[in-house]
Amino acid sequence: MAKETGRKLIAQHKKARHDYLxxxxxxxxxxxxxxxxxxxxxxxxxxxxxxxxxxxxxxxxHNVHIPEYTQGTWTNHSARRKRKLLMHRAEIDKLxxxxxxSGLTLVPLQLYFKDGRAKVEIALARGKREYDKRQTLREKxxxxxxxxxxxxxxRRQRA
Length: 159
Fold this sequence. Notes:
alpha+beta
């Protein structure tokens, strides 16, 4: 069998960038059971309620929903169990210092396979307030309108 290469996206937490101000991102490995990997290969997972937490010098991923494998037997996993994240010690130590600040949290952004291994991208983030969310949305709309206007002018110049 040929070795798997490249990156295959499984799940994405699209609303995270809307709800949080992303300060830093980290790529982590995941400790998974066999049925979890098979379920992920079917492209089934949800990061919506997920968060990461430091506990005893290790990083754990909580509330990420990986549904039970359909052909699994008694060896099947529980869908929302906590899963250990694999990070370098230096990265964990850096996170410990940063998470001491109030208002910072670790949220998963993407779950994917990279060269055949399951990875999760987590972000050090600060929650946005309602007015921050509205301002971000307004800026996004303004940027989109400006791009449309520029492309319309370019189309007229070509014609």
